[in-house]
Amino acid sequence: MFGSTAFLVILALSLLVFAVPEWLKYYFTLGLLVAGIALTSSWSTGMLTGAGQAYELPLFTAATGTRMVLVIDNLSAFFILVVNFTVLIGFLYARGYLEPYKIRMNALRFSIHYFSYLWLWISMLMVVMIRDGIAFLIVWEIMALSSFFLVIFDAEERSIMKTGISYLIQMHVGMFFILVAFLLVQQDTGRMSFDALGEYFSRHRNLPLFLLFFAGFAIKAGFIPLHTWLPEAHPAAPSHVSGVMSGVMIKMGIYGIMRVLASMQSDLLITGVIILIMSLVSGVLGVMMAIVQHDLKRLLAYHSIENIGIIGIGIGLGVIGQATGNGALSLLGYAGGLLHVLNHSLFKSLLFFNAGSVYHAAHTRNIEQTGGLMKRMPWTAILFLAGSLAICGLPPFNGFISEYLIYMGMFGSLSGASLYHSILIVGSIAALSLIGGLAIFCFTKAFGIVFLGEPRSEEAGNAREAGRSMIFPQLATAALILFIGLGSPLVVKPVFDIVTRTWNLGSQPLVTGAFTANLAQISLAGGIFVVTLATLLLYRRYHLSRHVVETGPTWGCGYTAGTPKQQYTATSFAYNYNHIAKPLLQTRKEIEEIGEDEIFPHRRKFLSHSDDLFKRNLVDKPVDWISGLLKRIAVMQTGQIRHYILYAFVFMLIVLLLAMLKII
Amino acid sequence: MAGFILIAVAAFFFPGVILRTKSIASGRKGPAIFQPWKDIAVLLRKGSVFSDTTSLIFRIAPSVTLATITGAMLLLPFAEQKAVLSFEGDFILFAYLLALGKFFTIIAALDTGSSFEGMGASREALFSMLVEPAFFILIATFAMFTGYTSFSVIFNHFFITGNDYVLIYSIIGAYLLVQIAMVENSRLPVDDPKTHLELTMIHEVMILDYSGFDKALIHVGTYLKFALYGSLIYNLVVPAGWNVILQTGLFFAVQALFAMVIGFTESFRARNKMNKNPKFILTLTSIALIAFMVILILTEKLA
Amino acid sequence: MLLLFFIVSLALSGVTLISGSRGLTRAFALAFSALLIAITVHAWFNIGNTELTWFTYDSTAVLLLSVLTLLTLPTVYHGFIYTSDDAVKRFNIYHSGLIALMTFMAGAYLANTMTVLWIFVEATTLAVAVLIYHDRTEVALEATWKYVFICSTGIALAYLGILFLGFIYGRGDAPSLSFSSFSHVISNANPLYLKIAFIFVLVGFSTKMGLFPMHTVTIDAHSVAPPPVSALISTTLMNVGFLAIYRVYTLFSGTPVLSFMNDVLILAGVLSLLIAAGYMLKAKHLKRMLAYSSLENMGLVAIALGTGGYGYYAALLLIVLHSFAKSSLFYQMGQLSRILHTFRLDESGRYMKLYPAGAMVLMTGMICILAIPPSGMFISELMIFRAMVVNGQWLVMALTVILLCYIIYAMSTRIMHVSFSSPRNESELLQPGHVSPVETVSQFILLAFVIMICFWQPPFLTDLISNSIALLPR
Amino acid sequence: MVNYLIVLFAVTLIYFASAERLSTYVRLVALQGLLLCGIAVFELKEVNLANLLFIVAETLLFKTMLLPYLLSRIIRKSGVTKVHRQAVPGFYLLLFSIAGLLISVILAVILVNPFINSIYLAIALFTLLTGLLLIVTHKLIISHLIGFLVVENAVFLFSLAIGNEMPMLINIGILLDIFVGVLILGFFGLRLKPHTNELTMLKD
Questions:
Q1: ipTM of the complex
Q2: Interface check C382 vs A, CB under 8 A
Q3: Could you tell me if residue A84 is inside a domain?
């Protein structure tokens, strides 16, 4: 069949990246990318418009009992499109972003980078298309591995290398959970595939297996408390990579969860509640931790956790809806979650690309060192603003649409709900609104401190606007964001279809119809808002043109020698908040007190940073403990022959003894 | 449409009434009702001064805020009259539009690069963030109680449920709305617009650098916002379906009452200590939870 | 044919010793590899036949023999490079030792009798001792001494184990019976004998296989032997040890002691993993770290054998793939030492800048050896876990997973730092040497094979493995 | 007759445990070779002549003459006369070897089997244990070598214990084993510094 052969050819050609001459590498990779995107997108659009296809690749002999078949159903089609768009934009952006590294690094480094990028993309596509267990695990790991190589692009930095490796390990651990889950399925059904899940679920309790899968996928997706790799890896990676990782790669975890849920049959209520509560925690804590970050990309990373939480809330509601037989709730929940996957992939990648441009311009990711970039790099600033508004879920941008759907699922299910249900729902409503508020707090801070006011450092002072090749891709993303925000009905309709087909909820013309109508109204409101704003601005311009306009210094309350140092910093902006959130965040300050005898206090520096409680207590401590143990065990290589013989001697005696005592 | 116009009209009297109340309470005669609007006219006649630190954001922010408020006004019904835009979940749009306006006010304040305004911005952001849940829980209780998710329908069915205890609930709701309005418009006890020390301001300090047209827009926005909340309160306490004249009368009565309440609070109450404010705002959330309990009882889920 | 092979190759090894010129020696070595290839092809064509009464071309033997043959040419090639600037005498000694070693290993693979197998194993010890001592340094001497001493002691123990088989049968020549004729005798034997015999054999040959109780000296041998030799020690020579244990295991697998053997194997395997993890976390010497990684892999093989079921297949696959991946890594070590002039981790770094091709080999090999997909070893690891799930050995599984994660951490940290970061302390500023990237070709080919296994397993391989585990209980 | 020899053999083993001087060790090794020769000759009745010669050769020639000679050379070269034990004092070592004897006897009883002469088995096991003990408890390389030789004697006894004839293959095996022993002594014993234990450069 043409499709599969073409795909295989692309896989094979990807190896040539190492061969082609240096100047050609980028374009060669781009060519492959575009070709593959055209191919797979055509598959998925074909799926969404018509019937599903399956493409068999002649990989995996029967020895492992697996056949590598690319199956495309609604869910995979959706994810394919999401992946393709972000990956393409990311790579276009990368051209400008990687320019400065060309002097430092030899061609091989770039080949590895492009190759890994290609394979990250390919493996993500395969992840969403493959049903067979072993094949899935392999591509799942390839995804982790390629992203690992992408993260450590700047590998001379020991810290980056450390981060990358811990990322790799955590991905590996997650893989083992999925592996065990699959093996259980195989032992029961004889098949190791997503298709066999239904059979398993029909015979056994669903919760335990689901929890295994969930643990594995949640590590990838970054649900708290399994998120610990995320805020480390994203800042370490180059920005186009972090954009792709945060935009689409962590969504693969979501995909897996959805895939498993699609074939679950019992235990739905408890499952839904678990997902919902974990997501609420992730959402709230994620954004709470985001606020106190000074590293721009780290802040964005924590926001990915928050958004994963929002997606999770949607999914959880969907499951609860299925459990309580509330079709509308599950439809809205799943649809909201799915749409938020798309939205988040857009605005988060946009924000990360922006952060990259800022990093290149100001040579720092610490927002305390930036400021006043609005005047120096206006395009980036505007795009960042668009992204922030979208991520805060403010109309008329796309974030609002998905959050609206989720909200409506909750509000709609309130009337006539049972006591516990309504308590749960009202709780989540409050939490979601709190998330929204906190997000606004965080992004007013981020945008305000980074782009507004006066520059706080030399580099920020003479920052230059990013090149065209970095701006245009972002413009495309921003345009899509605005389009989804204003033309939501066009987008939500297919999403509804996907959801109804995937979880076969049965078509619900009432709900879908009603909501397309509502969304039309929202678009109308957005339109009115935009028009009003435009007229206001026009009139304002007219008015100002007829009145005298002058500029002067910012009013300093009578103090005239103001310096940029006096501006409000990110720390001081979050000061009040810190007071409230202290118990949860454990922000630590480092300052040296002024001594009694110090008449003329010398220079001091004030340092405040908050590290991740979960990382410290759930990952670092146990890991260090075990490794200490292992190191203490490893004392046998004494270099003394008699010891070496002794080990054998003792081992034999012990085993003999055990054998005598019939223990083994 | 009626709702929209009435709110606009009410906005004309609202600030004046507040001023009058305060001056009478402090034993002065006080300015004319329309004095605030005269000030705005003055502002419109003046030119403007912009800080050379500021950028585009600072210039467009007031217009955006005003636009969001007008957008929000379109979502509010009056009596049986549906709002201009009425659909399921319009209150979500309502809240988020106002949030959008707030967003721009805050970043505009940060745009000036002045430490005062940054301080104000941080406080504003924090408080408005804390007040969000209260509002949403309140709305949630509406939805639970009536089973509808649109302002117009909710308020139409509010008193039709035939449940006599509704009154208790609507009083709590009204109280909550008043407090939320106070916070959102940064009046006492959270913030005192008449204070003279920048360090103790919230909203006023954020607009220190505005002048002329933009400042006028900001003031207009504030007044409209008051009326906005006023009409929400009105819809909550007055049953729909009486005749229109009476309704209109009651509408203005409620608005006036609301204004006077604000006036009296401001004349007889001192502003909170700044770091007491979060606690105060969180109490609103807990009160909202009480309202939720009440609804649980009213809908016989908790019995 | 076989007789011819033995005679000719031993003759070759002899004449190499006295050959006058490097070129001649090279010619001999190449001739020998041709001979080895020939015998392998011959073996392929009559699988199952017996020659000289003591040698049989059974599937397992052919499998391991082919592995040896595939590794011959690269080993000889890298050997040429490594010894190129030695005196002719040492050059000759090296190659004659190499030829002898390979001959003995081939013999050990093909032996169908415990005693013959044992004799050849003993012979390999002597042959490899020469190679380990090649550098003539104090350390080399110590390593050789330890290796020979411990190996011979261990092998003496193994011999006791073999003699125990005699007790079962009651006839002195029992150990000299071929496995096939042995199997029916075993079935009604006193389990205690079998157990003791197995323990002796396991512990004894663990010196060769590099498994837990007597792994210690192989580690030392790795770290001082010339890289191509280390490649052989940690792959084909370990396979010899594995084969000996595997033969006995197969022999006893029909009897009630099966579960006992499984438990012992798993115990040894887990302990090996434990020690390997601990030492890799402390490793300061690149080659030693690789040696410990061999220990880890052998531990996995033991566990696989112990879990049974799919584990058998996994064990053999693992043995094969490990041979390829690890040998290519050790060949790379040869080039690394010529570029960085050291194996100490704290003095090596920036390999990616100095020798990109080599760094690629390091990283690819690392991925392969750590069984991270797309490494074929992942397949066998997966099968091991599958077997564990079937048996419900959750504790073993958890231990294995945790230890594997630590091993991945330790190894990747070190290799990546060598490839990218700058050395922690550049003690002596030696001029980095120059090596042509062409030398890595053979390594890439081997690794490519390992990766290919992950996606496509050639039927002849799968058939061979399934045939060789046919005797084992399903 | 044979049994006396065997008992004597056991006694030499115990003597090993208590001996203090290396020269004693050497003598003991030689004595053991002699004893083994005697045992073999008495035991293997219906074995063919060639084979018998073979055995006699390897016992008398190697075990009784060559090895002790090499050992004494090494000792003279290194000039150490006394066995330096490590932490384990001789007294305990004696206890250990007694325990070893008990264990091996018990094992032999457990393993009793119509085909095996369990006295041989017991002594063989005891020899093995003693050899290992020598290696494990001693510091000096030379004592390690001696321990290794003792282990080889254990192998020899085992092969005798199996039955009253000695197949060719096993012979070859044993011969190889002895050959290795000789080689180790000849090569390393003279190259290394056997009176020290400084060979601990290779360790982690």
A1: 0.91
A2: yes
A3: no
